[in-house]
Amino acid sequence: MKMTKHEETVYDVLEERGFIEQVTDEGRIRGLLKEEVTCYIGFDPTASSFHVGNLVPIMSLAYIQRHGHRPIALVGGGTGLVGDPSGKDQMRQIMTYEEIRENAEAQKKQFAKFLDFSEGRALLLNNADWLTRLNYIDFLRDIGVHFSVNRMLATESIKIRLETGLSFIEFNYQLLQAYDFWYLFKNHNCLIQMGGSDQWGNIVAGIDLIRRLEGEQAYGITFPLIMTADGKKMGKTEKGAIWLDPQRTSPYEYYQFWINTDDRDVKRFLALFTFLPMEEVKEYGAKKGADLREAKELLAFEATKIVHGEEEAERARATSRSLFISVSDTFHVMESGSPNIIVDDAIPTTYVKKEKFLKGIPLFKLFEMTNLCATGSKARRLIEQGGGYLNNNRVDRVDVLIKLDDFKGEDGILLRAGKKKFHRIKILDRS
After folding, report:
1. Distances (CA, A) of 212 to 47, 89, 154, 235, 417
2. Alpha-carbon gap, residue 72 to 57, rounded angstroms
3. 267, 336, 387, 415: least surrounded by Cβ within 10 Å?
4. Is the pLDDT of residue 336 over 60?
């Protein structure tokens, strides 16, 4: 595919949207991307689901494809057996072949939400297909001979790990990733490898190996580590990671994660985590005060739609709006009345056995059980400070016991931490 002279390339798009941190040769890469190119990113199969922290590389591949290029999503079924030391302060747990195979299969399904694999428009490969077949002696003679230990020791990711201890198996990781790049270059004409900023040394090693073995030039692009405005790593919350798997993080919880974005991050996240045109991103990102809620709703809806589909995104938005209206009403209700409690199947729900409530469960314990608070002490503090709600009524006593009498019909009880975090509890009656 040849692009017109004045047509915007995907490099311009990625740069404007905040994806690019470092490149090996910006001028050559810009020129290269004026015609169809194959690019790849490797993904570690250490979990059965991706989480929000993985979205930057996945979204970059989606943008690559949307601008006429062919992306390769490489599942690290082989390198996962070794473990990437990059960005880690200790050795990863060694996983079994079966664990990695199962995780890789689960990840493949999630890639399909972002990329079109029909008719070779994108490739989904697993490096176990070639790495597990290597003969170790041949590998050392043919590949290892091109690597300088001195240069490897100077790599930032290796230097950091030398302070805490680096195993020999991890030290080999850079050779394997470099081999991946060479293999994809040789077999799929892949010219660009992309990855997180901690992958710079590994990418450069692959480029060098291609030059030594083939006498050809390949290129690399890295992405910045995305931190939230308050200095936290993207996708990490008090409850843990925000997963793309709906069994681990429900579509409603996923939506709520995005709608609770810090005001300072809205424009940046609209650019990175949606496919909205930049004109629209700038328009909504410029909103202030109360109008910013509209921008957050757009971010949450678009991000949820990509992962869970439009129907689930609509459902999560409707539930969130209902609860938001209910919460707003709470602050205008006098002691004599209370707003209607709106519940929906999209709200995270925990089922608890009936007998547990015969003697009663302290309310603060329920906040801990449902992960509205990370610990019991944090739940106590929340209630003491007036941030704990039961059925939209503020609770001011830590020792309140919740018994069967507190459950009204099939709706159960609704807990709320602060203004935005909800959880419903229903009775599991097996009698």
Report:
1. 35, 32, 20, 39, 59
2. 11
3. 336
4. no
Q: Does position 382 have pLDDT exceeding 70, yes or no? A: yes
Structure token pair of residue 282? 């700038």
Assigned token pair, 356: 């547990």
Helix crossing, 251-259 with 310-330: angle to 10°? Answer: 60
Domains of the chain: 10-223 (3.40.50.620), 236-330 (1.10.240.10), 349-428 (3.10.290.10)
**Alpha helices per DSSP H over 163-250:** 168-171, 173-188, 200-214
Residue 99 amino acid letter? E
Whether 117 and 109 have beta carbons less than 8 Å apart is answered as no
Among 183-187, 223-227, 337-341, 344-348, name the one with the lowest average pLDDT: 337-341
Opening angle at CA 107, ends 105 and 110, nearest 5: 120
Provide the pLDDT confidence category of residue 339 given band limits of 50, 70 and 90. Answer: very low
Q: Report CA torsion sign: 16, 19, 22, 27.
A: negative
CA quadruple 300, 305, 308, 314: dihedral sign: positive
Contacts 24+ apart (CB under 8 A), 239-243: 239/371, 239/374, 241/51, 241/52, 241/53, 242/51, 242/52, 243/49, 243/50, 243/51
pLDDT tier at 89, thresholds 50, 70, 90: very low
Output the CA–CA distances (angstroms, integers) from residue 336 to 157, 290, 389, in the order listed.
62, 29, 17
Cα 429 to Cα 70, 86, 351, 358, 363: the distances in Å are 53, 49, 9, 12, 20
In whole angstroms, give the CA distance from residue 166 to residue 279.
47
- Counting every residue written for the chain, the total comes to 431
**Mean pLDDT of all residues belonging to the chain:** 83
φ/ψ (deg, to 5) at 272: -80, -40
List Cβ neighbours of 126 (8 Å cut-off, separation of 6 or more). 74, 75, 76, 77, 78, 104
* Token representation of residue 326: 């209910």
**At 33, which helix (H) or strand (E)?**
none
- Characterize the bridge pairing of strands 38-43 and 70-75: parallel
Least trusted range by pLDDT, from 288-292, 310-314, 390-394: 390-394
* Mean pLDDT along residues 185-192: 98
